[in-house]
Design a protein that fits this description.
Radius of gyration: 12 Å
Shape: globular
Number of helices: 3
Mean pLDDT: 87
Structural class: mainly alpha
Length: 62
């Protein structure tokens, strides 16, 4: 299955990012924001979503 390896890679990236989220109450919000990057319909939209995610969490989880 061509998409499986990439999906697994996304899962590991998601898990690695979640390790920086210490408050349980924030984990779902951060996970949803990360999924928005992965589920973007185009590369340009993914880049835009990633930039928003970085701006939102850069100071909090640096």
């Amino acid at each position: 299955m061509p998409g499986v390896a990439w999906q697994r890679y996304q899962l590991h990236l998601q898990q690695n990012a979640q390790a920086y989220v210490t408050k349980q109450s924030k984990k779902r919000v951060v996970a949803a924001d990360i999924r928005a990057v992965f589920n973007a319909p185009s590369a340009n939209e993914a880049k835009r979503q990633l930039d928003l995610l970085i701006d939102k969490y850069q100071e909090t989880f640096a």
